[in-house]
Amino acid sequence: MKKDVHPKYYRCVVTCVSCGATFETGSTAKEIKVDTCSNCHPFYTGKQRYVQADGRVDRFNRKYGLK
Fold first, then answer.
1. Could you write out the DSSP letters of every residue in 4-67?
2. Total tally of structural domains belonging to the chain
3. Any idea what DSSP says for residue 2?
4. Handedness of CA 50, 56, 57, 59 (dihedral sign)
5. Residue 4 within a domain
6. Whole-angstrom Cα distance, residue 56 to residue 6?
7. Is 40 a member of any domain?
8. What's the rounded Cα separation, in Å, for the pair 58 and 55?
9. 1 DSSP assignment
10. pLDDT tens-place string over residues 16-59
11. Would you state the pLDDT for residue 2?
């Protein structure tokens, strides 16, 4: 393998801006900041809402007379 071809690989700290959670991973960057993580994202916490999707389904059913 050639020398000085690949970037440096660091142990990186990932910080969530929303909830402040941190975890460690490997990356070519020394520090990463993310907007949402698995601790505060609605899909992973179970607090996701389908309000808009429910309205679309009801509208479709009414349009085509489905029950």
1. T-SPP-EEEEEEETTT--EEEEEESSSEEEES--TTT-HHHHT----HHHHHHHHHHHHHHT--
2. 1
3. -
4. positive
5. no
6. 50
7. yes
8. 5
9. -
10. 988 889 999 999 998 999 988 888 877 666 666 555 556 777 88
11. 82
